[in-house]
Amino acid sequence: MLRLKGGRLYDPARAIDGQVGDLYLEGGRIVAPPGPDGVIDGEIDVTGRVVMAGAIDLHTHIGGGKMNIARMLLPEDHRGDPVPARDLHGGGHLHGGCGHAAPATWTTGYRYAEMGYTACFEPAMLPANARHAHLEMGDIPMVDKGAYAMLGNDDFFLRLLSSGADQRLINDYVGWTLDATQAMAIKVVNPGGISAFKFNARNLDLDEAHPHYGVTPRQVIQALARAVHDLGVAHPLHVHASNLGIPGNADTTLATMAAAEGLPIHLTHIQFHSYGTEGARRFSSEAERIAAAINRMANVSADVGQILFGQTVTASGDTMGQHRNHRHASPDKWVVMDIECDAGCGVVPFRYRDKNFVNALQWAIGLELFLRVSDPWRLFLTTDHPNGAPFTSYPHLIRLLMDRDFRNGKLDEIHAEAAAHSQLRSLAREYSLYEIAIMTRAGPARSLGLADRGHLGPGAWADVVVYRDEADREAMFAKPEYVFKDGELIVRDGRVVKVVNGALHALKPEYDKAIEQPLREYFDRYMTVKMEHMKIGDDEICACGASKLIPHKCGRQA
Amino acid sequence: MNPSLSVSPIPCPFCGLLCDDLEVAVVAGHARITSAGCARAAGLFDVPGQGQARVRGLAVAPEVAIAAAAGLLAAARRPLIGGLGCDVAGQRAAIALAERVAGVLEHMHGAAQFRNTLAFQDGGWMTTTLSEVRNRADVILFAGTDASAFPRFRERLLTGASQFGPARRRILALLPPSEALPEELGGDLVIPCPREGLAELAGVLRARLAGRRADRDPVAGVPGERIEALLDALRGARYGVLVWNAAELDFPQADLTVAALVDLLKDLNRDTRWAGLPLGGNDGGTSAAQVCAWQTGYPLRTALTASGPRYDPIGFAAERLLARGEVDALLWISALDPARLPPAADCPVIVLGRADMELATAPEVFIPVAVPGVQRAGYLHRMDGIVALPLAAPLACDLPGVAPILTTITEALDHAAA
Ligand code: SF4
Ligand SMILES: [Zn+2]
């Protein structure tokens, strides 16, 4: 048994806010303090250190076809950022890699662990591309992984919906998809819009009829949110709303929240959906209105998708949006792909500039949202990696949230007009360590239904991070002193000291398998893949590269 | 053994289409396709279950051949890890080995692949996948190919039921004057145009789309009125698909031709929908590029040096490395097609090949390997890079797969280095 002695614990799941205490690790788990007879065979004195559970990123594009397209597209992203291979003293090998915005899989895993993250969730796994996504994620070491299956633009679903199919049939199809693709949640991207783009529509509003199926994005959201709820999936329907990036889209975003009609709904990268049309440039912040709505609606959660200045690449399932954005590509090259009557993907490299009015305001809008949403249990810290910025900028983002002077200093540097437009300077809030721990640990774990992650209580898996309490929060969060994964020390002073390969979290929903009959007929009749080959068996997870499959039950029964 | 064990349906690994509807029976120790498939598949599914490891042509035990391979690779300063005709597990193992020996990774179809990759890395593209073509395409433009290198292209993509119609598709083709479109494709508009002329023609089509007049007539041998007819057909598509096969664009700087086709596609999408379908992906080529990209950041033609992966899309072409003596050993992996032999090389050659591979000159080392999808399970990507399918092993045998052999070699080198 290992004792971490005397740390200041930040464990919001148990309402522990900086109290000094000891942690005991044994057999990969956190255990209750042993009695006087307990054998402690190791001890680390962490007096004065900040101790938190391993961080969980619930929205990061780390693996799957579009990230690999981004990697292939951007040798210039990798050239300046090579990572040599390295043999570890205690045995073990770190693979070489590279990349800033679209790093190699090995590099992704090492960098996440070196920041104290122990689990990452890929939010946009296309069922047609699911096996590839699992193969790719299998080569992301150090962290546990999971993925959200994308639905709502696939022709099978749209046929069901437009034919007025019973909700139970839709539930079975959603359940089947979770099961077949080994997913943790369901995401919908530009509901119906990716499909509409294949029919040459360039825009699809929340209440606009799909050009072929006649159904509206609102109906898509409602059917999927209902299915996710009825199946008892812990994480709400994960929604990338319509009209991403378009000035004035805040109205759509508010209407999308309302469309859930009280059912749980998660709005992702909400920064990109909080835009107004005021001012001479017809682009303004609607962060206040959006935040107020989130504060009011307990069924809504969101992640921010903060942008940070510099070079990155945007990768999204939203072909309609990405095709519209291609004229902003920097460098000037971009990819749009229609995929398997399933969905699509678009990859557009992008450089956010602090002296550009729009970019500067986007930056301020994201921070405003962070500061205006009062409940950190319902707001998650993301940059929508790599769309707003690479995940390696999280420590910088944390400092912006925790340090008002630092934030205002940055505000002085951005496009002056944008700074003047924003109310950011008037927001005095500084996040506490406790709130950061909610946003990056306890909150995501609760949202995903991970009962034994994201906290430090006895019985939890021992994913534990120890930070030095430094005034410079960026330095502090960039380089934890110790990171333990399932009880093993994997990072010391911000460097990997042991390689582990991480497990895969997947839901095991209950649904009526009779859905396979119409599905099999559909695949046989129209598709170039057999339904049987879409399904990823439990026995494939380790072959794909994960250390093991961690199955999760659904909470409610239909 | 059960004389007639039937497995169904299973994917075929023998071209980039990866048809996954084959039924295969094992009869008297031979794999026989009983439903679906094609002549190419029928031939390649029939593979002997035993093979002989050899060192300089002499039969040896497999361990001896593996040790000899490890010795040659340990002595090399920069080996070429080439061929890469295998499944995902084999490609993962090949990259791990390359990292141990500072090798360069290149697929046997690298020359064709990089015509696409260079164009892609220059401008990106707009593409589609096989089921989209089957369901949505109402106009197909074959540019410099008739897709006949992919035997079931027409059957799988053009004749099956489609969700959105139409019952009949318009087929357009730009083919060299000496080549005819196969009759069953039923070309509606077949325009003779040399492959070398495709880029120029695409450029003029773009100018016409933008409302400018062609400044010459004919263009690449195509008379003006045919260009106008083609333009009408392109504009009239609801969902058009432009098909090319980089392997058939075999002339200098053909990446510029691909780029010109991509630019035409992008322009067409201002008003209607078009997407490209780059044919390819044989011999595990798509998987090789995908795995290398996610593990190293680069899609092959990459050296795994001590300071990290180094990418040189021109300099690391296998042909060039071998011709210039810039590599001092060649590991050739070809587990799918016995006709894919190693190129001539002035350095020691190690071959991991199908048991029925016939080599004119004996390499330093030959190690027979199981064929993924016939003798071993595994994973392989289809040409579109989206769908990865689980390969079956209807004819399991005792031969090891590529991955365990390469892993054994890497471990031997780890021990030697420790
Ligand atoms: S067309 Fe290609 S994949 Fe299909 S059966 Fe023939 S060789 Fe196999
Ligand atoms: Zn995202």
Characteristics:
A: 558 residues; alpha/beta; nine-stranded mixed β-sheet; eight-stranded parallel β-sheet; 28 strands; globular; B: 418 residues; Dimethylsulfoxide Reductase, domain 2; 20 strands; 23% strand; binds iron/sulfur cluster; binds zinc ion
Structure described in brief:
The complex is a heterodimer of chains A (558) and B (418). Chain A has 558 residues and is of the alpha/beta class.
Structural class call of chain A reads alpha/beta
In percent terms, what proportion of residues of chain B is strand? 15-25%
N-to-C terminal Cα separation of chain B, in Å?
45 Å
DSSP, total strands of chain B: 20
First-last Cα distance of chain A: 43 Å
Mean pLDDT of chain B: 96
Treating each run of at least 4 consecutive H or I residues as one helix, how many helices of chain B? 12
If you had to describe this structure to a student in words, what would you say it looks like?
Chain A has 558 residues and is of the alpha/beta class. Helix content of chain A is 34%, strand content 23%. In chain A, a hairpin with a 2-residue loop joins strand 24 (482-485) and strand 25. The two termini of chain A are 43 Å apart. The mean pLDDT of chain A is 97. Chain B has 418 residues and is α/β, with parallel strands linked by helices. In chain B, 58% of the residues are buried. Chain B contains 12 helices and 20 strands. In chain B, strand 14 and strand 15 form a beta hairpin. The mean pLDDT of chain B is 96. Chains A and B meet through helix 1, helix 2, strand 7, strand 10 and helix 3 of A and helix 3, helix 4, strand 8, helix 5 and helix 10 of B. Strand 20 (334-339) of chain A pairs parallel with strand 8 of chain B, so a sheet runs across the interface. Bound molecules: iron/sulfur cluster and zinc ion. Zinc ion is lined by residues 59, 61, 123, 268-269, 384, 387 of chain A.
